[in-house]
Model the fold of this input.
Amino acid sequence: MTVSPSSFIQGAGSLLAGLGVTIRAMFQPVVTSQYPRQLLNISPRFRGHIKLLASTENPEKNGCIACGICAKNCPSGSIKNVEGEKREGEKRKTATSYTLDYTTCSQCGICVESCPSDCLAFSADFNCAGYKREDFYYELVKEFEKRKKTS
Ligand code: SF4
Ligand code: SF4
Done:
C-alpha cells in the first residue's frame, strides 16, 4: 500500500496535535485523586445524610429531646420512630430512637433549620452504598453512639 505525501503530512500533523494535547496536560495541575486511597477534603457546605449532634450540656449524649418537630416538618416523611426517655435528674427527654429513611430524603434542610435544640446537622458522609433499600434506613441514635466511640 502506498501513502500519498499529502496523507502522510496530514497524518503526521494529526499525530503531533494529539501529542501536543498530551504534553500540555502533563504540565497542568492534577485535578483527579486516587480514590479510594486518597480522599479529598469535603466542603463544609456538603450535605450528606442528617446526623444527631451532641447535647450542649452533656457532650456524652445526643442533644435530641424527641419533640418530633423535625418529623412533622419533613416534607418527605423521611423521619420516623422518634422516641425518647426522661432520665433521672433531667428536665427533658433524650432520644432513644430516631430513624432516617435516606431513600426519600431530599436533603432540603428543613429538619435542620426547625430543630429547637440545634442538634441536627448534615454529615460529610458521601460514601453511602448498599444492596437493598433497608440499608439506607439509618438509626441516628446508634450512629451518634458509634461516632462518639470512634472520635
Ligand atoms: S433534609 Fe428535608 S427531606 Fe431530609 S429528613 Fe430533613 S426535612 Fe426531611
Ligand atoms: S426537632 Fe430536633 S429535638 Fe426535636 S425531635 Fe427533631 S432532632 Fe430531636
